[in-house]
C-alpha cells in the first residue's frame, strides 16, 4: 500500500506522475499506428484514396478527379495532405490513414498546451488525455482516411488562437492566425468554414463588450487577405475547369446540412437526438456530468476566462448544428476538445474527494476492466478467432496487463487513479488493433476488393496498357459501375501506379471492366461481382 499511496505513484509525487504520463502518451502513439494498414478500405476511404492517388499520377493538385473524370466536391487540401503522406510512406493504406491519426494526436497536444497555459500542467495533461480517448475519435475515425479530424484540427487552431492572442492583446496575430487556419479549413471543406470564425469572433467580442474590434484595421486587413486567398484559389481553378459548376456543387454540399434540407418532423427528431448522440460519443467524458451540476462548480468555471471562452465558442457554434438536420456528429469534432476541457475542470477540482460520485465513476471502470481482462483470456478459446492462431499466445499477455492496470487503479488515489483509467482505455485500443483490425483484413466484405485488384493486376501484369471502366452513366450516380468498384479501383491504382479511367467508349486499345450485360460477345479474362452486379475484365486490341 505504501508504494501506491505515499511513494512512487502518490499524487504528490509530481515528477513520477509526469513520467507515467509520458509513458502513457508513448503507448497511446503506438496504439494510433499499430496495424493501421490492415483493415480494407471502406465507406468514404476509397473515394478519398482515388482523388489523392490521381493528384499524384496526374501531377495536378488543383482539380480533383475520380477515374480520371473531374469530381466536383470539396476543395483539394485534404487530398493534397493524403498525397503528401503517400509520397512519404508509399502507395499503401497506412499512408492514407496516417494523417487522420496524426491530426488527432496534434489536437490533443494543442488541448494540453492550452490547458497547461491557462489552468495548470496537471489539468492540461488530464483534459488532453480524456480528449484523446473519446470513443468516436479513438476507436473509429482515427483508423480511417477520412477528412473530419484534420478539418477539426484546423478549425480548433483558428478558434483557440482567438482567445490566446486576445489575452495578449496582439490583434494582428489574433486575426492573422485565426483567418490563416480558417482559410486552410475552407480549402479543406468549403464555405461553411467561415461560419466558425464569424460566430466565434462575434459572440466572444460581444461578451467582452468589444465589438468595435470587428471594424479595426487588423481585422479588416486579415479578412481581406483571406478573401484574396480564396479568390486566388478560384481563379486558378477556373483556368482548369468549370468554375461555376464547381462553386454550385460545393455550395450544394453546405446547403444539405442546413435547416433547408429536411422536413419539420426531421428537424424535431434532430433537436432531441443530436445533443444526446454528441454526449454519447465523447465517452468517457460524458460521465463527468456527475461532477458539474453544482452551483459552486458553475462558479468555478466562470472564474476561469479560458473556460468561459470555450463555453461561449461551443454554445454559439453548436447551435448551428443543433438546428440543422443534415448535420452529423463527425461535423462537430472541433467541439470535442472544448467540451472535454470544460467538463474535466469540476472533476479536476475534486480529485481528492472520495464521495459517492467518485466511487461510482471508478467502480464503473473497475467492472469494465475486469470484463475486458476476462474477454482477453477467453478469446483464444473462441472458434471465431481461430483464423488468428497467434492470439492464443498474445491475448493472455493483454489479459495480464489489464489485470495489472486494474490492481494499480484500485490501489492508487486521486489524480493517479485517472491516469490508470486512461491506461486502460489505451490498452483496449491496442487490443482492438491486435484483434479487430486483422479480423477485418480477413473477414470484411471489403477484403474481396483487394483480392479482385490483385487478380486483375496479375492478369494485366506490368503492362502499361491502360485500364478503363466502361459505363455510359454519370460518374456520380454509380449505377452501371457501382460505387464499391471504387474500392477495387483504389487498390489497382495503388499497385499499378496508373489511373483507372472511366469511359463511355470502347474504341481505344486496352483492358476494360464491363458490366457483363454489356459484353456483346466479348470474352472475359476475369469475372467478379460487386454489390450484386456482375462485372468482367476484357482486353480490346
Automatic annotation (TrEMBL):
<dbReference type="InterPro" id="IPR050297">
    <property type="entry name" value="LipidA_mod_glycosyltrf_83"/>
</dbReference>
<dbReference type="GO" id="GO:0009103">
    <property type="term" value="P:lipopolysaccharide biosynthetic process"/>
</dbReference>
<feature type="transmembrane region" description="Helical">
    <location>
        <begin position="363"/>
        <end position="387"/>
    </location>
</feature>
<feature type="domain" description="Glycosyltransferase RgtA/B/C/D-like">
    <location>
        <begin position="73"/>
        <end position="230"/>
    </location>
</feature>
<keyword id="KW-1003">Cell membrane</keyword>
<dbReference type="GO" id="GO:0010041">
    <property type="term" value="P:response to iron(III) ion"/>
</dbReference>
<protein>
    <submittedName>
        <fullName>4-amino-4-deoxy-L-arabinose transferase</fullName>
    </submittedName>
</protein>
<keyword id="KW-0328">Glycosyltransferase</keyword>
<keyword id="KW-0472">Membrane</keyword>
<feature type="transmembrane region" description="Helical">
    <location>
        <begin position="271"/>
        <end position="293"/>
    </location>
</feature>
<dbReference type="GO" id="GO:0016763">
    <property type="term" value="F:pentosyltransferase activity"/>
</dbReference>
<keyword id="KW-0808">Transferase</keyword>
<feature type="transmembrane region" description="Helical">
    <location>
        <begin position="305"/>
        <end position="324"/>
    </location>
</feature>
<feature type="transmembrane region" description="Helical">
    <location>
        <begin position="94"/>
        <end position="115"/>
    </location>
</feature>
<keyword id="KW-1133">Transmembrane helix</keyword>
<feature type="transmembrane region" description="Helical">
    <location>
        <begin position="20"/>
        <end position="38"/>
    </location>
</feature>
<feature type="transmembrane region" description="Helical">
    <location>
        <begin position="121"/>
        <end position="141"/>
    </location>
</feature>
<feature type="transmembrane region" description="Helical">
    <location>
        <begin position="178"/>
        <end position="207"/>
    </location>
</feature>
<feature type="transmembrane region" description="Helical">
    <location>
        <begin position="148"/>
        <end position="166"/>
    </location>
</feature>
<dbReference type="Pfam" id="PF13231">
    <property type="entry name" value="PMT_2"/>
</dbReference>
<feature type="transmembrane region" description="Helical">
    <location>
        <begin position="214"/>
        <end position="236"/>
    </location>
</feature>
<dbReference type="InterPro" id="IPR038731">
    <property type="entry name" value="RgtA/B/C-like"/>
</dbReference>
<feature type="transmembrane region" description="Helical">
    <location>
        <begin position="393"/>
        <end position="410"/>
    </location>
</feature>
<dbReference type="GO" id="GO:0005886">
    <property type="term" value="C:plasma membrane"/>
</dbReference>
<keyword id="KW-0812">Transmembrane</keyword>
<feature type="transmembrane region" description="Helical">
    <location>
        <begin position="330"/>
        <end position="351"/>
    </location>
</feature>
